TrEMBL record:
Boundaries of every 3'-5' exonuclease domain copy: 38-214
Signal peptide range in chain numbering: none
Protein name: Ribonuclease H-like domain-containing protein
Molecular-function GO term, any one: nucleic acid binding
Organism: Emericellopsis atlantica
Pfam family, one: DNA_pol_A_exo1
InterPro entries membership: 3'-5'_exonuclease_dom (IPR002562), RNaseH-like_sf (IPR012337), RNaseH_sf (IPR036397)
An individual GO BP term: nucleobase-containing compound metabolic process
Length: 309
């Protein structure tokens, strides 16, 4: 994406104005692309912890996008209950299925919003699931990717990535206990500049990632939407485990994987189910399955040479 400006939202007047802006952006005729990209931060971000910062990127298609850091720690429930000029609230927007919102792994964000503020998310598109569904084989889809891995792989802006990595590292040093930090830094006011940059970084590349996978979603969309909805519903149940096991495993069932395989069409492994019949390790399979301009003839030559050895 291009340049972006960052603004702290910590008054009810600002919340009301922001709500009015979001409503204005989504009145008919509605835009074809999403404008809301969201990430949350807090101390143990889930029902068992707190929500401190609600980061919102608004992408209107102009060269400069706006990133808002909403100070939930200071505003509390007023963040979601303050009305704009039309009588709408941020909670209303988040619960409107006709207003698209993009998250990367919505699970714990949904959990904390529902548990602490009664916000039942609707209209969510989860880029983590979109990226997973875009992979060509069931084997490569087994594990979910992190945001950092997706940004590194799919965002070609090498110069921008260097500053993005630096901002993420500086922020992590402040809150990661392994680096001597504490998550309570998200409750420090005024918000430290390193945390502002860190939060902005969490949404900075979401528009680019969303556009990358939205363009090829097609038949995948129903499966992705279904599993996104399942994530949200699961996060609202009493038995939900915010840090439960197998969180890095993709949700696709055997039938869903077959559907995704058919959507991706015949390829070098179309007749080998999920077994790695080519004798390649996981990294090699990943490289072949995700390379730009994949060369099947080259692949066969290399495979034959390997077989002969």
């Amino acid at each position: 994406m291009g340049e972006f400006k960052t603004e702290i939202i910590n008054t009810t007047k600002q919340i009301g104005d922001l709500v009015d802006l979001l409503i204005l952006l989504h009145v008919p005729p509605k835009p074809h692309e999403s404008t809301m990209y969201i990430d949350l931060e807090g101390v143990n971000l889930c029902r068992e912890g707190t929500l401190s910062i609600f980061t919102l990127l608004i992408d209107t298609g102009t060269p400069t996008s706006s990133v808002y850091l909403i100070d939930v720690f200071s505003l509390g429930v007023e963040t979601f209950e303050t009305t704009g000029a039309k009588g709408q609230t941020l909670k209303d927007i988040l619960q409107d299925e006709n207003i698209p919102k993009v998250f990367f792994d919505v699970r714990n964000d949904s959990d904390v919003l529902y548990a602490h503020f009664g916000v039942a998310l609707e209209g969510v598109q989860d880029v983590q699931l979109m990226e997973s569904a875009a992979r060509k084989t069931a084997r490569s889809r087994k594990h979910l990717n992190s945001l950092a891995k997706c940004v590194e792989q799919y965002a070609p802006d090498r110069r921008g990535l260097a500053s993005w990595r630096l901002a993420k590292e500086k922020g992590a040093k402040l809150f990661n206990p392994k680096n001597g930090g504490s998550f309570t830094v998200f409750e420090q006011r005024p918000i430290p500049s390193e945390i502002i940059s860190y939060c902005a970084g969490d949404v900075q590349y979401l528009p680019k990632l969303w556009k990358r996978f939205e363009a090829t979603a097609n038949m995948q969309q129903d499966l992705v939407n279904k599993e996104t909805r399942e994530r949200i519903l699961a996060s609202q149940k009493p038995e939900y485990k915010p840090n439960g096991p197998n969180r890095t495993l993709a949700p696709w069932s055997e039938d869903q994987n077959r559907t995704l395989d058919r959507w991706h069409g015949p390829g070098p492994r179309a007749h080998f189910d999920d077994e790695n019949a080519w004798g390649l390790d996981d990294d090699e399979m990943w490289e072949y399955n995700h390379a730009e301009g994949w060369d099947f003839d080259k692949f066969l030559r290399e495979f034959v040479e390997r077989y002969r050895r």
